[in-house]
Amino acid sequence: MHRELGNIKVFYECDHAFHHTIAKAAKHPGATTFVNQTRLQLTRVRSLVVVEQGHMESVIKEHLQILKALDSGTIDQALKAMQFHLDTVYATIERLKNAHADFFVDKK
């Protein structure tokens, strides 16, 4: 169990570093600020989902697809990979909101 918790901590750190690096490389005003501002919210979501079988592996595969596309310079593939990743994240958040409503505040 201790080894698994260590892997989760490394996953959190790598996941944040990945998002921060992409935002910084984008050179878009506010991208890095946005990543930093959403870190706490993402950490809460990660804490609910990271223990699910195969979740970390799926996220790593999605990140690798994004990196592969960026590295090859195929912007359309990078955009598709990023959109797929974001769609997956949003779907996961919706699923978690339904399963753990007490962890989320609806600001409607």
TrEMBL record:
<protein>
    <submittedName>
        <fullName>FCD domain-containing protein</fullName>
    </submittedName>
</protein>
<dbReference type="Pfam" id="PF07729">
    <property type="entry name" value="FCD"/>
</dbReference>
<dbReference type="GO" id="GO:0003677">
    <property type="term" value="F:DNA binding"/>
</dbReference>
<dbReference type="InterPro" id="IPR008920">
    <property type="entry name" value="TF_FadR/GntR_C"/>
</dbReference>
<dbReference type="InterPro" id="IPR011711">
    <property type="entry name" value="GntR_C"/>
</dbReference>
<feature type="domain" description="GntR C-terminal">
    <location>
        <begin position="8"/>
        <end position="87"/>
    </location>
</feature>
<keyword id="KW-0238">DNA-binding</keyword>
<keyword id="KW-0804">Transcription</keyword>
<keyword id="KW-0805">Transcription regulation</keyword>
